[in-house]
Write a structure and sequence with these properties.
The protein has 245 residues and is α/β, with parallel strands linked by helices. The protein has nine helices and seven strands. The strands form two sheets. It has a five-stranded parallel sheet, with helices on both faces. β5 and β6 form a beta hairpin. It binds BIS(adenosine)-5'-pentaphosphate. Residues 28, 30-36, 52-53, 56, 73-74, 77-80, 85, 106-107, 109, 113, 151-152, 154-155, 164-166, 169-170, 190, 199, 228-229, 232 line the site of BIS(adenosine)-5'-pentaphosphate. BIS(adenosine)-5'-pentaphosphate binds next to α2, α3, α4, α7 and β6.
Length: 245
C-alpha cells in the first residue's frame, strides 16, 4: 500500500517540546531517508532541520556567491568544499531556533567537517553559550544499494515546502502535485542516473570514515532504514528519548 508523507502528520505522534535535545546527526548514503526522517523528528520535537543540501540548493536558486561556487560541484555529485560548508553551518547554528537542539541532515560528511563540529561544540561550552558540553546523538540509516537506487530515481519534492514524495512508495494524493501546497512536484537536478554513481562513491569514500569515527567514540547508532517510514521513525525516537531521559 502506498503511504503519503502527510499521513504521518495526521497520525499525530505526540509532540515533545520540553527536552533540550542538543545536536542530532543523521548519517546515511544518498536516498537513505535522512530528509524524510529529519522532518519527522522536527515535527515531533520542534527542533529545526539543518540540511546542508537544502541550504546549498536554496543558495543555487538565489544565485548567491555560495550558490555559484556550489552549483557545478553539486551537479557532478561531488562534495562542496569543507570551508564553505562549515561556515554556512556555523551561521545557521547561531540562529536562536537552534538553542534547544537541531537536526544535522547531511553534515558532517568528511573527517574535516566532523573535527569542525567537535571544535564548534567545545567552543560553545568554553565561551559559556552552553552550560554543558553538547554531545551529538549520531544515527546512521543503512539501506540496501538497490533500494537506494530505486528511492533516488523515484524521488519527487515540492519546490514550495520541501515535502518529499516517491513515485514508488510515497505518492502524492494527486499525481505529481504537493498534497499541501498544490505545487507541481519536481525532480532534483542531481537525481539523474549519471550523477547518482558519483554521489554514492563520495559517500563511500569520504563519509564512511566519519561513521567509523563516531563508532570508535561510542556515539554511533545504526538503524535499519530498509523498513517502512513509520518503523524507522519509531526506532529513531526511541534512541533520542533514551539519550535525553
Ligand atoms: P543532500 O541534499 O544532503 O543529499 P544526499 O545526502 O545525497 O541525500 P538525499 O537528499 O539524496 O537523500 P536522503 O537520505 O535525504 O533521502 P530522502 O529522505 O530524500 O546533498 C546534495 C549535495 O549537496 C551533495 O551531493 C553535495 O554536493 C552537497 N552537500 C550537501 N551537504 C554537504 C556537506 N556536508 N559537505 C559537502 N557538500 C555537501 O529519501 C529519498 C527517497 O526515498 C524519497 O523519495 C523518499 O520519499 C523515499 N523514502 C524515504 N524513506 C523511505 C522508506 N523508509 N521507505 C521507502 N521510501 C522511502
Amino acid at each position: 500500500m502506498t503511504q503519503s508523507p502527510n499521513d504521518s502528520i495526521s497520525n499525530s505522534m505526540a509532540q515533545e517540546t520540553s527536552r533540550n535535545l542538543g545536536p542530532i546527526v543523521l548519517l546515511g548514503p544518498p536516498g537513505a531517508g535522512k530528509g524524510t526522517q529529519s522532518k519527522r523528528i522536527m515535527e515531533r520535537y520542534l527542533v529545526p532541520q539543518v540540511s546542508t543540501g537544502d541550504i546549498l540548493r536554496q543558495n543555487v536558486i538565489q544565485g548567491t556567491e555560495l550558490g555559484m561556487a556550489a552549483k557545478a560541484v553539486m551537479a557532478r555529485g561531488e562534495l562542496v568544499s569543507d570551508d564553505l560548508v562549515c561556515e554556512m553551518v556555523r551561521l545557521r547554528l547561531k540562529e536562536p531556533d537552534c538553542k534547544r537542539g537541531y537536526i544535522l541532515d547531511g553534515f558532517p560528511r568528511t573527517a574535516a567537517q566532523a573535527g569542525w563540529l567537535d571544535a564548534f561544540l567545545d567552543d560553545q561550552f568554553f565561551d559559556k553559550s552552553r552550560a554543558t558540553r553538547a554531545w551529538p546523538i549520531v544515527i546512521r540509516l543503512d539501506v540496501d544499494y538497490n533500494q537506494l537506487l530505486l528511492r533516488i530515481s523515484g524521488r519527487r519534492s515540492c519546490p514550495t515546502c520541501g515535502r518529499i514524495y516517491n513515485v514508488h512508495s510515497q505518492r502524492a494524493h494527486v499525481n505529481e502535485v504537493c498534497d499541501v501546497e498544490g505545487s507541481k512536484l519536481i525532480t532534483r537536478n542531481d537525481d539523474r542516473l549519471e550523477v547518482i554513481g558519483p554521489r554514492l562513491a563520495a559517500y563511500q569514500e569520504l563519509t564512511t570514515p566519519v561513521a567509523d569515527y563516531y563508532q570508535r567514540t561510542g556515539r554511533l547508532h545504526t538503524v535499519n532504514g530498509d523498513r517502512a517510514v513509520d518503523e524507522v521513525s519509531a526506532e529513531i525516537f526511541r534512541i533520542i528519548e533514551d539519550h535525553s531521559a
